[in-house]
Design brief:
OB fold (Dihydrolipoamide Acetyltransferase, E2P); 1 helix; seven-stranded antiparallel beta sheet; mainly beta; 2 domains; four-stranded antiparallel beta sheet; Ribosomal protein L2, domain 3
Length: about 290
């Protein structure tokens, strides 16, 4: 994996970059038809037609790939046949195939591809699996200090944490039915040790280095232009209005008043707060913690 740069033949190409897709097994391969579904695009609107999420709309057509985040089929060796591109996420995905122990038929499934996983490798799930790249184990069976991703928060619910490109968490300890994990944000969190996690670092670590180069590439992603609140009228935004160029007269916020730069928005009495051992690092010096 790496970054490819173009010759600056146009202003949009100057400074723009793309992934080189070196880890993709077959660039011309279509996604597995049985593992795809078409999603209805809403453009950020709810069932009343009212915009509830701003700056959404347009974009290139995408077919959703069904990813197995649960990885609950134990003690079955699965062979990696392809590493594929997924337009719905920043990471690459791996296509696995295995013989179903019940029906005896060949079954295919998609998982998140970690760094180092390639076509021809085998992966497995369960407590008896080896703690090697691509295998999914309960955290009680994973050695301390191991880099993990796709972490469950409740046993059987499926991986919810650490799923984007280049990310990984570190398993600090596992004892007395609880596992302690350091997340990419710096937060140290306690999770049930029966929760599963996948060994390794999520693939496509260079995703954050890609420079779009022009506004059109943002539109291809389905993101519409963002208008600053200070240039709006008072009826449209809390920071709107004023004679001349006003800075807003208040802390930056959304149209609904939600603070935009580090204000506390987490509920003070949220039950899961007791699972947080150490808060994530503050983005602003002196920011208050809940």
């Amino acid at each position: 994996m790496g970054i490819r740069y173009y010759k600056p033949v146009t202003p949009g190409r100057r400074g723009a970059s793309v992934s080189d897709f070196a880890e993709i097994t077959d660039r011309k391969k279509q996604p597995e038809k049985s593992l795809t579904v078409r999603l209805t695009r809403t453009g950020g609107r709810n069932h009343h037609g009212k915009i509830t999420v701003r700056h959404r709309g347009g974009g290139h057509r995408k077919i959703y790939r069904i990813i197995d985040f649960k990885r609950r089929l134990d003690d079955v060796e699965m062979k990696v046949t392809h590493i594929e591109y997924d337009p719905n996420r920043s990471a690459r995905i791996a296509l696995l195939e295995y013989d179903c122990p019940e029906s005896g038929k060949l079954v295919k499934v998609y998982i998140l591809a970690p760094n180092g996983l390639k076509a021809g490798d085998t992966v497995s799930n369960g407590a008896n699996a080896e703690p090697t790249v691509g295998n999914c184990l309960p955290m009680s069976k994973i050695p301390q200090g191991t880099e993990i991703h796709n972490i469950e928060m409740q046993p059987g619910r499926g991986g919810q944490l650490v799923r984007s490109a280049g990310n990984y968490a570190v398993l600090n300890a596992s004892e007395k039915g609880w596992a302690q994990v350091t997340l990419p944000s710096g937060e140290v969190r306690r999770l049930p040790s029966d929760c599963r996690a996948t060994i390794g670092v999520v693939s496509n670590a260079d995703h954050s280095k890609v420079v779009l180069g022009k506004a059109g590439r943002t539109r291809w992603k389905g993101r519409r232009p963002h208008v600053r609140g200070t240039v709006m009228n008072p009826v449209a935004h809390p920071m709107g209005g004023g004679e001349g160029r006003n800075s807003g007269g208040r802390h930056p916020c959304s149209p609904t008043g939600k603070l935009a730069k580090g204000g506390n928005t987490r509920k003070r009495r949220k039950p899961s707060s007791k699972a947080i051992i150490r808060r994530r690092r503050s983005r602003r010096y002196g920011q208050k913690k809940l």
